[in-house]
């Protein structure tokens, strides 16, 4: 039964990724509202957060399918389902590991948005966006995703 639920969640992430991205960008907006001294506005229908409103460096950031944590969580869910199908007795460890790894991926993606925000505030829109999105943001995602995978495997397979 757990395998079926996990596969349904995985399918849900694929088919309802727009809803997931809306939640994710809303979380980003909430975090930015707390740390920013300028205005922040979230447009859920467009999965977009605008920050720096009223400053010299306002920017709108859209959470595209390529930038969401959903597609980093998706393989973890599928691998978790396969692990449980092959070894049902490790179900509780796999589910715990999956929860921790999925949370880590979401946190890493929020850190990526915060990195972009900080660099735009520091270096301006053009340079800050380039460094925050293209270079450092990608590195944060790759290393964070890899770390989440390592934690997942370690937690799910340790005795």
Structure description:
The chain crosses the membrane at residues 68-87, 94-123, 135-156. Keywords: Cell membrane, Hydrolase, Membrane, Protease, Transmembrane, Transmembrane helix. The protein has 159 residues and is mainly alpha-helical. Helices cover 73% and strands 9% of the residues. It has 5 helices and 3 strands, in the order H-H-E-E-E-H-H-H. It has helices at residues 2-15, 17-35, 70-86, 91-123, 125-157, and strands spanning 39-43, 48-53, 59-62. It has a 3-stranded antiparallel beta sheet, with helices on one face. Helix 2 crosses helix 4 (91-123), helix 3 packs antiparallel against helix 4 and helix 4 (91-123) packs antiparallel against helix 5. The protein is elongated. The protein starts with a helix and ends with a helix. The mean pLDDT is 93.
The secondary-structure element order is HHEEEHHH
Which regions are unreliable across 5 or more consecutive residues at pLDDT < 50?
none
Cα-based radius of gyration, to the nearest Å: 17 Å
Secondary structure tally: strands? 3
Class computed from helices, strands and strand pairing: mainly alpha
Mean pLDDT: 93
| Silhouette | elongated
For the biggest β-sheet, the strand order reads 1-2-3
Binned strand content: 5-15%
Distance between the termini: 23 Å
What is the helix content? Answer: over 70%
- Main sheet makeup: 3 strands, antiparallel
Helices, by number, come to 5
């Amino acid at each position: 039964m757990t395998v079926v639920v996990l596969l349904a969640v995985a399918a849900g992430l694929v088919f309802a990724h727009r809803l997931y991205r809306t939640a994710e960008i809303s979380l980003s907006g909430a975090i930015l509202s707390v740390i920013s001294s300028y205005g922040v506005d979230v447009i859920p229908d467009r999965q977009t957060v605008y920050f720096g409103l009223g400053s010299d460096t306002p920017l709108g950031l859209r959470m595209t399918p390529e930038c969401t944590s959903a597609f980093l969580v998706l393989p973890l869910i599928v691998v978790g389902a396969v692990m449980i199908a092959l070894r049902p007795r490790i179900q509780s460890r796999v589910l715990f590991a999956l929860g921790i790894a999925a949370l880590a991926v979401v946190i890493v993606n929020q850190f990526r948005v915060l990195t972009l925000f900080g660099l735009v505030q520091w270096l301006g829109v053009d340079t800050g966006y380039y460094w925050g999105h293209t270079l450092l943001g990608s590195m944060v995602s790759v290393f964070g995703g890899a770390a989440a995978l390592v934690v997942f495997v370690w937690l799910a397979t340790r005795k």
